[in-house]
Amino acid sequence: xxxxxxxxxxxxxxxxxxxxxxxxxxxxxxxxxxxxxxxxxxxxxxxxxxxxxxxxxxxxxxxxxxxxxxxxxxxxxxxxxxxxxxxxxxxxxxxxxxxxxxxxxxxxxxxxxxxxxxxxxxxxxxxxxxxxxxxxxxxxxxxxxxxxxxxxxxxxxxxxxxxxxxxxxxxxxxxxxxxxxxxxxxxxxxxxxxxxxxxxxxxxxxxxxxxxxxxxxxxxxxxxxx
Length: 226
Known about the structure:
Elements: H1 2-24, E1 27-31, H2 35-41, E2 46-52, E3 55-60, E4 65-67, H3 73-80, E5 89-94, E6 100-104, E7 109-112, H4 115-123, E8 128-133, E9 140-144, E10 149-152, H5 156-165, E11 170-175, E12 181-185, E13 190-193, H6 197-202, E14 210-215, E15 221-225
């Protein structure tokens, strides 16, 4: 009986993991710097992935991480010397101008960004779900696990979309260095804009299956879908 219970628990765990992987996107398509590195490093066990500037970074279920050479200096130093016994990173976002946000398993987080963003993150009682860095130093968007978001200096179309919807049901907002944006909501809907026609055409085959998108320099981007 104990054996049967153990098998049942194992099966439940496997199904939960499968669902988690499906929900965060178990496939990618991309146009990124260091494309060979990206192809090698991506797998369905990537819990968090971000690109910014010319860099890409991955965090894995095992607590490990991988990044290309151009990630923000302070983040590079933080991870490079980090002991594996410390709480592992579970979420990361990088932007241009050496901005980043990283959250660890124990709920601690660190970041480099504008003062308004720092003030927001220090004062909030809510748990952070995603952080995005936009075109200018003071352009950012924070989404909380409650579905609420706080933002400043984002593209006009995104501002309009968020005001019109006026709902605290978001799961993610991403921003790019040239007016790009991606938004997803708890009902599975997603919106994007500010991208060039080639990139939009590239993701057309799976446009209804997109769960996450991020943007780097010179129209570089990636899409996670299932």
